[in-house]
Design the sequence.
């Protein structure tokens, strides 16, 4: 006995098989598109990560942070995003501190430049120590010269205190700049006073 109706018509014809095939092809197509997008997004995130790392290498902290923010927006737990963010923030602070010291240097505020730059000597990552030491040595030299030229009047105790300060400044300078023969010579001369 045959049952009539829409299901029996589908069972009897190849339409049922054709409809299932179309649905399967559509689902496979959707999966491929989604997979392609995921691969493309992953590739895009990896490229952005490469730009972040290059910006860090170039010490372009704002560009590095902007690119990292875009990555985290798309994928909050991407790789080591928090570690990289910490590294960028530290780099920005270091750069700001160096720039603050440079402003003091330009204003011929040698002591302030030295006090601002000296802590940067302990940083090894992402910093050009040679350039920092060169400028720091010059600031020491200029501060010592300024102090020698502007010796305060007063009694012998004030004079001794003043020259003791200069001698201590030279000791710091020579410790920071051990290869600077002029500083070493000036330290010896200042010690004679």
Sequence:
């Amino acid at each position: 006995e045959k049952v009539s109706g829409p299901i029996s018509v589908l069972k009897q014809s190849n339409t049922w098989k054709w409809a299932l095939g179309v649905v399967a092809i559509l689902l496979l197509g959707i999966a491929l598109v989604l997979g392609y997008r995921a691969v493309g997004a992953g590739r895009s995130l990896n490229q952005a990560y490469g730009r972040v790392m290059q910006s860090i290498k170039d010490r372009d902290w704002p560009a590095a942070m902007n690119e990292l923010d875009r990555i985290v927006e798309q994928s909050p737990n991407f790789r080591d995003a928090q570690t990289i963010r910490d590294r960028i923030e530290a780099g920005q602070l270091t750069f700001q501190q160096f720039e603050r010291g440079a402003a003091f240097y330009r204003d011929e505020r040698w002591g302030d430049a030295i006090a601002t730059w000296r802590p940067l000597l302990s940083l090894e990552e992402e910093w050009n120590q040679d350039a920092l030491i060169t400028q720091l040595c010059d600031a020491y030299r200029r501060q010592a010269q300024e102090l020698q030229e502007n010796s305060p009047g007063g009694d012998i105790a004030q004079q001794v205190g003043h020259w003791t300060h200069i001698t201590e400044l030279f000791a710091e300078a020579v410790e920071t700049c051990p290869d600077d023969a002029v500083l070493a010579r000036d330290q010896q001369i200042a010690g004679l006073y």
About this structure: The CA atoms of residues 34 and 40 lie 10 Å apart. The helical segments are 6-12, 15-57, 61-74, 81-106, 110-117, 129-149, 156-176, 181-192.
